Protein 1
Amino acid sequence: MEKIREYTNGDVTIQWKPGLCIHSEKCWRGLSEVFKPKEKPWIQPEGVDSKRIVEQVGQCPSGALSMKDEAHEKENKDQSIKIEALKNGPLMVHSDCVITKPDGTTEVRQNRVTFCRCGHSANKPFCDGTHKKEGFEG
């Protein structure tokens, strides 16, 4: 398992993956107030503007430095999507959806959408109710 170290200023959290680091020196040359290779710990984000940290971490060429997006993780955790397999019917997704079709076109459905499970819909990937006529069980 890859080792990941985290350093925070209470607002943002920097993640460092030592195994990916190519020692380009962009981090400490660009923001020496945070990245101090001769000190332990070498990343000290306290007291530095979070926006500056995020911008500097974004310049890491190897991906060894990244930002832990706690707000995004919490938002995603709180927004679970309910998918319901209806008895002898379609899959119902209870959420806003952007559907990309095989030809590359997209379609937006809001609140919920039903997807064909029986394979007989004339409006794939969406359900058109054909499962009833076909006697689909599942």
Protein 2
Amino acid sequence: MELHDAVAQIAEIRHQLAESTTFRGYRPATTAFTGVVALATAFTQSLLIADPVREPYKYVDLWIIAAITCLVVVGAELVFWARRSASRMRSEMTVAAVHQFAPCIVAGGLLTVVIANYQGNVIWMLSGLWPILFGIGMFASVRLVGKGLTLVGGFYLLAGLLILTRTPPSAMQPWCMGLTFAIGQFMAAAILYLKRRSEVSNEVE
């Protein structure tokens, strides 16, 4: 029984360390790539969807495809980072990071399904709600990734609220979503890069 308790305590300590240690699984290049996806999606929307207010479901489908693309790329990067080391700590840190950010992704997905299926007349509001939820995810990741994400989370929150003050045709314009997520992700990439550079400098000293 004492051995079982000791193993359980060790597992708990490892879990707490994983949640309190700086997570390095999010890569600046991968994060910047998601910003490029946002710009590419906005450009695609400008070509394919002349009036998103009249074709709201095409608008939603296009941005869902963009979100899934980013999730697949970031997810693959996290799996690669976790498995690149034999240490179980990386895997546990990755799980902790996913647990912190996943609720906003799940909430965004469910909110999209409900609005698209039952409240189609307010689909335009998703362009503001998505950044707000993403900003909440950034705030949730601050403890594990770094305080710099507070700035990114604040940007997404403010941008989402400003989008909600606009009219539907204006809120659904391609560069409204495109620039919001591009700027936000480029900011996050820059913060991750500077943080990593600072850590390397400290190690050298």
